[in-house]
Specification:
Blueprint lengths: L7 H5 L7 H15 L4 H8 L6 H9 L3 H11 L1
């Protein structure tokens, strides 16, 4: 965690924002340590889609994934 700039205090604080690149780096390191290249997928299987804010908004506001992608690309 240190090489990614993460501390145990950060992990325990629900108000800390971790950039997605750091999160993906952590997942890659955990996958290497667990010798499971699909660790991220296994974690995602146990999480509800509505627990990820961006996906939760998408699920509430879009008829299809394509609708959300078009909306996101237009907003950026």
């Amino acid at each position: 965690m240190k090489q990614l700039g993460l501390t145990s205090d950060m992990a325990e604080n629900p108000d800390v924002f971790v950039h997605s690149e750091v999160f993906y780096g952590l997942m890659n390191e955990l996958a290497r340590a667990a010798q499971d290249p699909f660790l991220g997928l296994h974690v995602a299987e146990d999480m509800g889609l509505d627990s990820w804010p961006v996906l939760a908004i998408s699920l509430e506001t879009s008829r299809t994934v394509g609708d959300d992608r078009i909306s996101f690309e237009c907003d950026v």
